[in-house]
Design a protein that fits this description.
The protein is an alpha+beta fold. Strands 1, 2, 3, 5 and 6 form a 5-stranded antiparallel beta sheet that branches. A hairpin with a 2-residue loop joins β5 and β6. α5 packs parallel to α12, α8 runs parallel beside α10 and α13 crosses α15.
């Protein structure tokens, strides 16, 4: 059995190393191309969409721009498709080191319907995104003239028709690209009438000393500006103060209260035998009584352990620089692959713990583990993908991509889950309980309302949330906006603080629960640990209505739908952390006293 276990561990190490170096290779191979003078540098048009609705994006040529004779789709990786990227050849011809002065891309007569589509896009602040030698380019497609006009019906709508490219190169490599629109080259599209447009562009090449290895640094500098770093460090200091206060509070409990308890219980043992016990020692025969719904409990622990492992692996890849800015789809690829490869951890943890709780139907437990997180995620995806299809947005996954994800689930995730479950069932581990459990449970005394599950969850979730809420804004602005987040070291520190605070507050509340002679602490510790996920979802409401300009059914559905899945993942992960910490604490205190 030990040999099988070591082989399983070896398998995971090998797989992760392959994944790790594969991701590094993706990074090093990204557009490391040398060009000759006059050679065409690839320019791909990606997508367009409302600036304030990051999930609502459409194909570039869904708007009636000039189209090249043959539009060719760029082959994309899984993560790029999941990210909503749909790259196609752009109509602009950019040759290496060849300047161009105002060249016409095409002359186009816009119909009334096409003018209306452009006007609607300009009114919604549509932006475009392109990639030139894997460097991102953005710009707005037009502007709204509101100056001196109080009535929206008087607004003037203009379409930009001239795009200028400023490109910097270092010898034979492209280093930087910027695109700007000519504010004087405008087309009035206010009225519903046919308009003739000459779409034009110009190119200017310049020499720079910036080395190729540092060309992506400018995109990460915005999140590392001094005033931003000050806020991040303030966030960490705030979190550390929270941790120190909580640690001091717990140290007081462990060193004073528990010490007094140990002395009291030792004195009681020397006193009359018929003296009635009180406090947490009184329930020593019930504290290790297995929880209700133990199959669901074990499945939640398995899923939470897998998600915690996933988070650690993602942080490792982030800290070594794999998720540099605009490494398109790298994060989504890593999430899908690592989640699939770590499913064995969920199966092993759930089946092993379920068997420790003397569960018999381990197959049902394994099915529950596999569907506990993937089930809600699948239902959410089906609904949101249907919405995206209705909007003809790039967020709608192609059928081929759905088939690939299904095959990953069927050929990797499910087999590893089953193998992990079999290994967990055969581990023959026994639950380590320092005291014997009585045949009949003691009655729990009537407790005040604030000792109920919901008030305790509110108290347990508030402190960890207060330690991370400042950093949450930057994460939300990156995921649901256009900010760039690259300070993964600070984010990792905040994550560690979150784990520590969650563990400490759960231990403290578990002690108070046991001291009140309430022995049903298993589910309570899990719910208290995971309650931070509910606070994060509450922050979603605040962010959507107070800190963002998102609007529309599709964007609202995507935001609240996928954030519900993310917060549910945090609930499972932090719930597992809270229970593990509480279990360690409960075992420790009951091992330290003598119970009959």
């Amino acid at each position: 059995m030990a040999r099988k276990s070591s082989m399983g561990c070896g398998y995971y190490v090998v797989v992760f190393v392959l994944l790790f170096f594969g991701a590094i290779k993706v990074r090093s191979d990204s557009s490391d191309h040398k060009y000759k003078s006059g050679e065409e540098v690839p320019l791909y048009a990606n997508k367009v969409g409302p600036f304030h609705n990051p999930s609502e994006t459409y194909r570039y040529f869904d708007l009636p721009f000039c189209s090249p004779g043959h539009v060719k789709d760029k082959t994309e990786a899984l993560g790029e498709v999941l990210n909503g990227d749909r790259l196609v050849t752009a109509p602009y011809k950019l040759d290496f080191m060849n300047d161009r002065e105002t060249e016409v891309v095409c002359k186009k007569a816009l119909s009334k319907e096409e003018v209306a589509r452009f006007r609607d896009a300009v009114a919604k602040d549509y932006y475009f995104q392109m990639f030139f030698d894997d460097l991102p380019i953005w710009g707005f497609i037009g502007k709204v003239d509101k100056e001196g006009k109080a009535d929206p019906s008087e607004y003037k709508y203009y379409l930009f028709k001239h795009l200028h490219f400023d490109i910097h190169h270092n010898k034979d490599r492209v280093i930087e690209v910027n695109a700007r629109t000519d504010p004087n080259a405008l087309v009035d599209i206010t009225e519903d009438k046919e308009v003739d447009v000459d779409f034009m562009y110009s190119v200017k090449w310049k020499e720079t000393e910036i080395p190729f290895e540092k060309r992506m640094e400018k995109y990460s500098q915005t999140s590392a500006l001094p005033h931003h770093l000050e806020i991040h460090w303030f966030s960490i200091i705030n979190s550390c103060v929270t941790v120190l206060l909580l640690t001091g509070f717990l140290a007081t409990i462990l060193m004073r209260v528990l010490k007094n308890d140990f002395v009291k219980y030792a004195h009681d043992e020397e006193a009359a035998d018929d003296q009635e016990e009180t406090g947490w020692k009184y329930i020593h025969g019930d504290v290790f009584r297995y929880p209700k719904q133990k199959s669901l409990f074990a499945a939640a622990l398995g899923s939470g352990t897998q998600l915690f492992t996933l988070a650690i692996f993602i942080f490792i890849l982030a800290l070594v620089g794999v998720f540099y800015p605009y490494n398109r789809g790298a994060l989504f690829t890593a999430l899908v692959v690592i989640y699939a490869l770590t499913s064995g951890i969920a199966g092993y943890t759930a089946a092993s713990f379920y068997c420790q709780l003397e569960g018999k139907n381990w197959v049902r437990n394994l099915l529950l583990t596999g569907g506990l997180f993937c089930g809600p995620l699948l239902l959410t995806f089906c609904f949101l993908n249907t919405v995206a299809i209705g909007y003809h947005a790039t967020a709608a996954l192609p059928f081929g991509t759905i088939v690939v994800i299904f095959l990953i689930w069927a050929l990797v995730t499910s087999p590893l889950l089953v193998l992990g479950g079999i290994a967990g069932k055969n581990s023959k581990a026994e639950f380590q309980a320092p005291t014997r459990t009585t045949k009949y449970p003691r009655e729990i005394p009537q407790l005040p309302w604030y000792r109920g599950a919901l008030p305790q969850m509110a108290m347990a979730g508030f402190l960890p949330f207060s330690a991370i809420y400042i950093e949450l804004y930057y994460i939300f602005a990156s995921v649901w906006g256009h900010r760039i987040y690259t300070i993964y070291s600070i984010l990792f520190i905040v994550f560690i603080i979150l784990i520590i605070v969650t563990a400490f507050i759960t231990v403290a509340l578990t002690y108070f629960q046991l001291a009140a002679e309430d022995h049903e602490w298993w589910w309570r510790s899990f719910l208290c640990g995971g309650s931070t996920g509910l606070f994060i979802y509450g922050y979603c409401l605040y962010y959507y209505y107070a800190r963002s300009d998102m609007s529309g059914f599709m964007q609202t559905s995507f935001f609240f739908g996928y954030m519900a899945c993310i917060c549910y993942a945090f609930f499972l992960m932090l719930g597992t952390v809270g229970f593990r910490a509480a279990l360690f604490f409960v075992r420790h205190i009951y091992r330290s006293i003598k119970c009959e």
